[in-house]
Design goal:
It holds the Pfam family NmrA. InterPro entries: NAD(P)-bd_dom_sf (IPR036291), NmrA-like (IPR008030), NmrA/Isoflavone_reductase-like (IPR051609), PCBER-like (IPR045312). One of its GO terms (molecular function) is oxidoreductase activity. The protein is of the alpha/beta class. The chain contains 9 helices and 13 strands. It has a domain at 7-149 and 178-204: NAD(P)-binding Rossmann-like Domain (Rossmann fold, 3-Layer(aba) Sandwich). 37% of the residues lie in helices and 22% in strands. The strands form 3 sheets. Strands 3-2-1-4-5-6-11 form a 7-stranded parallel β-sheet, sandwiched between helices.
Length: 246
């Protein structure tokens, strides 16, 4: 199915996740792509590479609403892939500028585990508050939850170099994970789905337990991992601090 949208702007498009989202839009070939970067201009190899593939690199002062509105004029979809510990404060100016520039749809910087309860940690609290702002803005929106990024599973106890696994939760606990490249592809596909308008989209490349992921690591490496288990609920309570992005 083709998309009604033609021009997409991405904030954070040269970051770890944002770059994969940008590449997915370029590979799809159906969109004009803007990569929004902060002033002042600095050298960035990823920005150069995206530009060589057809993306337009635009610069704006995120603290100047008029500047943001100017570069967002003509944009149909705004994708936020910004990072940081204060995603609420960072994204509020982007949302305000997108609304004034008549952007049709806003996709905020979710892309991680789904949290709906205030008090998990400051980052998650900010994300929940910002989702509320997006809904109140009147713009179309899509919230995309993807689970953990598969590339970062090492942060959850898998030491590939030393062939060790340290689990801080039940080894039978199921985790949703998605690769960064697939997060990009799923984001593109939401623009072709009528049901993604003003909706929550939940995707997962795999849903396995920690023990099952360990088995995959061992199968790929052909080596046995030594394992340790600790009881530490704090790690999983604060999972959002680790997985959401950069």
């Amino acid at each position: 199915m083709s998309s009604q949208f033609k021009t997409v702007a991405i904030a954070g498009g040269t970051g770890t996740l944002g770059y994969h989202i940008a590449e997915a839009f370029l590979n799809d070939g159906s969109y004009n792509l803007k990569i929004l970067r902060r002033k002042p201009e600095t050298e960035n190899e990823k920005a150069k590479l995206l530009a060589s593939k057809g993306a337009e690199i635009v610069y704006a002062d995120y603290d100047q609403k008029d500047d943001l509105v100017k570069v967002l004029k003509g944009t149909d979809v705004f994708v936020s892939a910004v990072n940081g510990t204060s995603l609420y404060d960072t994204q509020v100016p982007l949302l305000a500028a997108a609304k004034e520039a008549s952007v049709k749809r806003f996709i905020p910087s979710e892309f991680g585990g789904e949290f709906n309860k205030i008090g998990v940690n400051p980052l998650i609290d900010g994300k929940i508050k910002f989702r509320e702002e997006v809904v109140k803005s009147g713009l179309e929106y899509t919230f995309i939850f993807t689970g953990l990024f598969q590339e970062f599973l090492g942060w959850f106890g898998f030491d590939v170099k030393n062939k060790k696994a340290t689990f801080y939760a039940d080894g039978n606990k199921k985790l949703h994970t998605t690769s960064l490249s697939d997060v990009g592809k799923y984001t593109v596909e939401t623009l072709k789905m009528p049901e993604a308008r003003n909706a929550v989209i939940k995707v997962a490349g795999a849903t396995l337990s920690l023990n099952e992921y360990l088995q995959k690591f061992e199968e790929v490496s052909g080596e046995h991992y030594s394992t340790s288990f600790f009881s530490n609920a704090i790690l999983f309570k604060n999972v959002g601090l680790i997985i959401i992005h950069s």
